[in-house]
């Protein structure tokens, strides 16, 4: 995809990976529709990127229709959607608040699905475009005390895989970006800070670069950093060995 002149919706654009992605896309000449529930944060991003700022809550089932309608009214077309907004939680599942479970499912899984449902008809009608989903390494390997988060991201991975096959002849590219631990405020709002010895957090710009690269080159899957894909393969092929190693590195 040629990013110069492309119209790209980015959710969770007020901070972290979303903010870094919006900035990189704008640097390449894209028109960025920056979406976040934090109005002040997203306005600051848009002051740099230009484009359009939309304040909304991904938990709203109707948010996708509103985002797409507003974007089409303003620009007349949509070339790509980066469904990046996400939330986390660390803690024993037995005592996990019920409303947090609901929020994880609504933001991490239902939100991207609803946005996709709203944007896809336009992409199909124009004969091409891209849908990019920020998932997580936790969607590929089990992480103790993050059971609900893991399943919300694994569900998003499976959704993307099925959709990719469904639209394979349409010109619409479906991409999953699977980050490991990223140095953002995400970990400040998930009940417990990140304290694992390994892997070390990477900067959000590294994930953003993978998203931009995937858009430009039409890539369908990326794990960042790439070596973490070994953990996914190890868990699938030798789950007992993976369990032992995960306990050695322990902690959250």
Question: Describe it for me?
Answer:
The chain has one domain (7-249): 3-Layer(aba) Sandwich (Rossmann fold). Helices cover 47% and strands 15% of the residues. It is built from 8 helices and 7 strands. It has a 7-stranded parallel beta sheet with strand order 3-2-1-4-5-6-7, with helices on both faces. It is globular, with a radius of gyration of 18 Å. The mean pLDDT is 90.
Q: Which descriptors apply to this entry?
A:
alpha/beta; seven-stranded parallel beta sheet; Rossmann fold; 252 residues; 47% helix; single chain
SSE layout:
Elements lengths: L6 E5 L4 H12 L3 E6 L2 H11 L2 E4 L7 H13 L4 E4 L14 H29 L2 E6 L12 H20 L5 E8 L24 H14 L3 E4 L4 H9 L1 H11 L3
Parallel strand pairs: 1-2, 1-4, 2-3, 4-5, 5-6, 6-7
Helix pairs in contact: 1-2, 1-6, 3-4, 4-5, 7-8
Give the strand order, joined by hyphens, for the main sheet: 3-2-1-4-5-6-7
Overall tally of domains: 1
Secondary-structure content class:
alpha/beta
- Architecture in CATH? 3-Layer(aba) Sandwich
Biggest sheet overview: 7 strands, parallel
Helix content: 40-55%
Any low-confidence stretches, pLDDT <50, length ≥5?
Answer: none
Reading off the top of the CATH hierarchy, the class is best stated as: Alpha Beta
Separation of the first and last Cα atoms: 38 Å
- The number of helical runs is 8
CATH topology: Rossmann fold
Order of helices and strands: EHEHEHEHEHEHEHH
Q: How would the global form be characterised? A: globular
């Amino acid at each position: 995809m040629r990013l110069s002149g492309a119209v790209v919706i980015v959710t969770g654009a007020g901070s972290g990976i979303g903010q870094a992605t919006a900035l990189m896309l704008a640097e390449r000449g894209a028109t960025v529709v920056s979406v976040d529930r934090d109005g002040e944060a997203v306005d600051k991003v848009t002051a740099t990127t230009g484009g359009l700022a939309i304040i909304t809550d991904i938990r709203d089932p109707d948010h996708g229709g509103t985002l797409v309608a507003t974007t089409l009214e303003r620009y007349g077309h949509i070339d790509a959607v980066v469904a990046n907004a996400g939330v986390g939680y660390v803690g024993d599942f037995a005592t996990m608040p019920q409303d947090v479970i609901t929020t994880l499912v609504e933001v991490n899984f239902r939100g991207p699905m609803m946005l996709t449902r709203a944007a896809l008809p336009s992409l199909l009608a124009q004969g091409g475009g891209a849908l990019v989903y920020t998932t997580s390494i936790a969607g590929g390997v089990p992480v103790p005390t993050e059971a609900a988060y893991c399943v919300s991201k694994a569900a998003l991975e499976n959704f993307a895989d099925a959709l990719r096959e469904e639209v394979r002849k349409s010109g619409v590219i479906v991409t999953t970006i699977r980050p490991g631990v990223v140095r953002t405020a995400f970990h400040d709002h998930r009940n417990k800070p990140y304290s694992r010895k390994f892997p070390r957090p990477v900067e959000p710009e590294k994930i953003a670069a993978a998203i931009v690269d995937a858009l430009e080159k039409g890539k369908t899957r990326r794990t960042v950093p790439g070596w973490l894909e070994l953990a996914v393969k190890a868990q699938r092929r030798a789950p007992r060995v993976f369990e032992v190693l995960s306990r050695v590195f322990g902690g959250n």
